[in-house]
């Protein structure tokens, strides 16, 4: 019993580490999960190109999805194999963990021959992320953007969707070579910027996403000690620019020509850039 699914990565509008409200947008770079289910005792995970990386998240996603949706298979399925392939690096602030969890839950459902409700499937992946400790708030903001596409604004304390809007933007992403695991982020420092995060949440709920992003970027570069230089290179010509998640990537949105010029500046530094777009379609089964 095999299944395959894809889920997009995402960029940040509001980091939820300050007050548990977050906002994110899906981008056109994706993670694929391939799941094979059988009657074996255990679930084995593999991450393409990252043999040392922790596979607990995707293994727990398969396990929870079998528990939740496996009724019809009458004990024929107890274990299996899951493999992810990703266009974005892990722990770079581009929500690879949310994309991997969504793709894995949907691929498991496909293997079981079940069509899951997208938000239910998304909350299952968030539960797995909490259980294996790869998240601070559960990151329902990132997970819902990846599952539904477009922009989402959420309350991660209740895994509640506050807004979801399809947007068509050009997007520039820069990922430096370093990695920053969300679970290691300085949460106490992020909580200090919660009055600013409240303003960002209001801007996001009014649909003023670009301004929200830029305010978020300055606040969280300060809280997490990332440079504001890449933001100042982008402003004032872009619509919005921010540190994405807990870093180290930055994302900018705006006119494609402006982003192409900005890419030349960001490319002077080490790392990788992508000139891409938002995704209005979220995760999907093949
Ligand atoms: N493509 C992937 N496949 C499987 N697990 C992944 C993948 N990407 C991330 N993860 C899991 O999520 C953890 C990193 O999560 P996090 O620090 O939130 O990074 P990100 O910003 O990329 O989501 C990894 O240690 C790994 O357990
Ligand atoms: O673990 C978490 O609760 C979160 C991690 C951050 O994202 P990254 O995983 O991209 O760093 C942040 O943007 C998000 O709002 C909440």
TrEMBL record:
Lineage: Archaea, Methanobacteriati, Methanobacteriota, Stenosarchaea group, Halobacteria
InterPro entries assigned: GHMP_kinase_N_dom, Ribosomal_Su5_D2-typ_SF, Ribsml_uS5_D2-typ_fold_subgr, SK_arc
Record HAMAP family: Shik_kinase_arch
Principal cellular location given in the protein's record: cytoplasm
Alphabetical GO biological process terms: amino acid biosynthetic process; aromatic amino acid family biosynthetic process; chorismate biosynthetic process
Pfam families for the chain: GHMP_kinases_N (PF00288)
GO molecular function list: ATP binding; shikimate kinase activity
Residues bound to ATP: 89-99
Keyword Flavoprotein: no
Boundaries of every GHMP kinase N-terminal domain copy: 57-150
Name by which UniProt lists this protein: Shikimate kinase
GO cellular component, one term: cytoplasm
Keyword Zinc: no
Keywords: Amino-acid biosynthesis, Aromatic amino acid biosynthesis, ATP-binding, Cytoplasm, Kinase, Nucleotide-binding, Transferase
Subcellular location: Cytoplasm
Gene3D superfamilies xref list: 3.30.230.10
SUPFAM superfamilies (UniProt xref): Ribosomal protein S5 domain 2-like
Family: Belongs to the GHMP kinase family. Archaeal shikimate kinase subfamily.
Pathway: Metabolic intermediate biosynthesis; chorismate biosynthesis; chorismate from D-erythrose 4-phosphate and phosphoenolpyruvate: step 5/7
Reactions mediated catalytically: shikimate + ATP = 3-phosphoshikimate + ADP + H(+)
Its EC number(s): 2.7.1.71
């Amino acid at each position: 019993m095999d299944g395959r699914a894809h889920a997009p990565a995402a960029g940040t509008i509001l980091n939820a580490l300050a007050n548990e409200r977050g906002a994110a947008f899906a981008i056109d770079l994706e993670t694929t999960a391939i799941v094979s289910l059988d009657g074996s005792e255990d679930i084995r995970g593999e991450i393409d190109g990252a043999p040392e990386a922790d596979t607990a998240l995707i293994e727990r996603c398969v396990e929870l999805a079998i528990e939740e949706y496996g009724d019809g298979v009458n004990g024929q399925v107890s274990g299996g194999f899951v493999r992810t392939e990703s266009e974005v690096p892990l722990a770079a602030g581009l929500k690879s963990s949310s994309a991997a969890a969504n793709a894995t839950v949907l691929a498991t459902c496909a293997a079981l021959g079940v069509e899951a409700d997208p938000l239910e499937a998304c909350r299952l992946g968030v539960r797995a992320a909490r259980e294996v400790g790869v998240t601070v708030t559960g990151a329902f903001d990132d997970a819902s953007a990846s599952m539904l596409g477009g922009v989402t604004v959420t309350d991660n304390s209740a895994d509640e969707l506050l807004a979801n809007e399809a947007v068509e933007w050009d997007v520039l992403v820069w990922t430096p070579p370093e990695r920053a695991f969300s679970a290691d982020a300085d949460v106490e420092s992020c909580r200090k910027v919660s009055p600013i995060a409240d303003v960002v949440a209001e801007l996001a709920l009014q649909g003023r996403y670009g301004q929200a992003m830029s305010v978020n970027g300055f606040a969280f570069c300060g809280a997490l000690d990332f440079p504001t230089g890449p933001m100042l290179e982008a402003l004032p010509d872009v619509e919005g620019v921010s540190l994405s998640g807990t870093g180290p990537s930055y994302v900018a949105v705006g006119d494609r020509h402006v982003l192409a010029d900005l890419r030349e500046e960001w490319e002077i530094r080490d790392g990788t850039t992508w000139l891409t777009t938002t995704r209005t379609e979220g995760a999907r089964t093949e």
